[in-house]
Amino acid sequence: MDNQDILQRIQALVQEEHDLREQPQVGEADSEHQDNATRLKRVEEDLDQCWDLLRQRRAKADAGENPADAHARPISQVEGYRQ
User: Fold this and answer.
1) What is the spatial distance between Cα 83 and Cα 80, in angstroms, rounded to a whole number?
2) What's the chain look like in SS3?
3) For the chain, which residues make up each domain, given as ranges?
4) pLDDT tens digits for 14-43?
5) Cα angle at 10 between 7 and 13, to 5 degrees?
6) Are residues 15 and 48 in contact, defined by beta-carbon separation less than 8 angstroms?
7) Region Disordered: start and end of each range (predicted)?
8) How far apart, in Å, are the Cα atoms of 35 and each of 23, 45, 52, 68, 72?
9) Rounded Cα distance, 38 and 54, in Å
């Protein structure tokens, strides 16, 4: 996966995130709402993971290293970063 592939994945996830956020918010007990909330959380995590991978690849390239040596970190690690 190269930077362009990652950017395309990010764009697809951003579009899905927008679509999920635009859906009407029905009662929290509604199973479709719960499914959407679960999917939205997963999309947000996937986005964070993709951005982290892209940053790693760019940093390796800037340091003269092989960007292909960068690997997606576990979501638990990426979600634990401080902003």
Assistant:
1) 9
2) CCHHHHHHHHHHHHHHHHHHHHCCCCCCCCHHHHHHHHHHHHHHHHHHHHHHHHHHHHHHHHCCCCHHHCCCCCHHHHCCCCC
3) 3-23+31-78
4) 999 999 999 876 666 677 778 888 999 999
5) 155
6) no
7) 16-36, 60-83
8) 12, 15, 26, 35, 25
9) 25
| Burial per residue of 15-37, b for 16 or more beta-carbon CB atoms within 10 angstroms, e otherwise | ebbeebeeeeeeeeeeeeeeebe
The 10 Å Cβ neighbour count of residue 43 is 20
Q: How far apart are CA 10 and CA 24, in angstroms?
A: 24
Residue 23 near residue 36, CB atoms below 8 Å: yes
pTM above 0.90, yes or no: no
Residue recorded with tokens 């290293």: 65
- For the residues 7-17, what does the mean pLDDT come to? 98
